[in-house]
Design goal:
The complex is a heterodimer of chains A (236) and B (107).
Chain A: H1 2-5, H2 18-22, H3 34-63, H4 71-74, E1 77-79, E2 82-84, H5 87-111, H6 115-145, H7 159-191, H8 193-196, H9 210-235
Antiparallel strand pairs in A: 1-2
Chain B: H1 10-32, H2 37-59, H3 67-74, H4 76-105
Helix pairs in contact in B: 1-2
Chain lengths: 236, 107
């Protein structure tokens, strides 16, 4: 206690990048809407969830004695008599990227207060997202018919099934939730909620175009996760 | 530009959009041409990181965010890399233990 009575100089560090930012008295994320900061923090936690899935996938794939099924063959589709490797997965990848592009534009038009373009682009994003989930359902059906189960499969290492259903299932759930919220947001934008500041049904908070960017962050994150799943699970 | 809003020219979005398509096509080509070994893994990782980087930086506007928020989001991700490193070693230990066990029990 004696020391605290002596000289403690409280000085604000000179403006040298991060230290100044981080040592802020009241809030660290100045000028960042709280909803956006919270979404980012949620996304960091979600990153950990998906990281753990992919790490457990790495662990079981490296530690199994049985041969890992070749995804290039497992996910091949027959077009006529030709077997095209990974065809459906490639289409799904392109669809998700397209939806990410329409979402980015929706955010842009949102900030320009172009409510119709914003709503139409979000609707398009939702439709692309829904078609992605549809294709995933098709893929699951195909694999289940071929005898893939979380505990066994006819192609090789039994862990393949559990990882496949877990990872793509969790990702598909994220897409589905995103699609639902995109429809809600598109309706809000179309109705002009973000222009009039109409209070939300659930949160009673005033609507603002920031909500479109927050929606966008979530949607791009879902695309981001797919980039990693596509690389590590389907291509590796 | 008002604080907290993100307005950028249309051009940059179309540029990144095209880039994502091209790099997705590239990563599909890796499988199409059946590249194997380190070439395959290297290319997959390269295309993955480029795509992830552009989505994060441009589409999610991370590039224009404050340093404080960039730092808060990106640094925890290094913990993931540490975990990857630990589990990578763990998996090889498990594999050796399994092989030894099956060798001894003869199954």
């Amino acid at each position: 206690m004696e020391e605290s009575a002596s000289t403690i100089e409280v000085s604000i560090p000179p403006n040298k990048g991060l230290a100044t930012e981080w040592a802020s008295d009241q809030k660290a994320f100045k000028g960042v809407p709280w909803g956006k900061a919270m979404m980012w923090i949620f996304l960091v936690s979600d990153t950990f969830v998906f990281s753990i899935f992919l790490i457990s996938y790495m662990t079981v794939r490296f530690s199994t004695k049985a041969e890992w099924p070749n995804p290039s063959e497992v996910f091949a589709l027959h077009v006529g008599h030709v077997s095209v490797p990974l065809l459906l997965i490639a289409i799904m990848t392109f669809i998700l990227i397209t939806s990410s592009g329409t979402m980015a534009l929706a955010v842009k038009y949102g900030y320009e207060k172009n409510r119709k373009m914003c709503a139409i682009l979000m609707l398009a994003t939702a439709v692309f997202g829904a078609s992605f989930v549809g294709m995933q359902a098709f893929e699951w059906t195909k694999l289940i018919m071929e005898g893939v189960r979380p505990w066994e499969n006819p192609f090789g290492a039994p862990q393949f099934g559990s990882i496949f259903f877990m990872v793509t299932g969790f990702h598909g759930t994220h897409v589905t939730i995103g699609v639902i919220f995109l429809f809600i947001m598109a309706r809000k934008a179309w109705r002009g909620d973000f222009d009039t500041g109409r209070r939300g049904f659930f949160t009673s908070q005033k609507s603002h175009y920031e909500a479109v960017e927050i929606m966008g962050l979530y949607w791009h994150f879902v695309d981001l996760v797919w980039v990693f799943i596509f690389a590590f699970f389907y291509l590796w | 530009m008002a604080e907290g809003t993100q307005q950028h020219p249309l051009k940059i979005y179309f540029f990144v959009w095209t880039l994502l398509f091209v790099f997705s096509a590239f990563s599909y080509m890796v499988d199409w041409f059946q590249f194997q070994g380190y070439l395959r893994w290297g290319l997959i990782l390269l295309f993955m990181l480029v795509k992830a980087g552009f989505i994060c930086a441009i589409f999610m506007h991370m590039w224009w965010e404050r340093l404080a928020i960039k730092f808060a989001i990106l640094t925890p991700c290094f913990a993931v890399l540490v975990f990857v490193f630990i589990m990578w070693h763990e998996s090889f230990y498990t594999l050796i233990a399994r092989k030894l066990y099956f060798l001894v029990t003869g199954s």
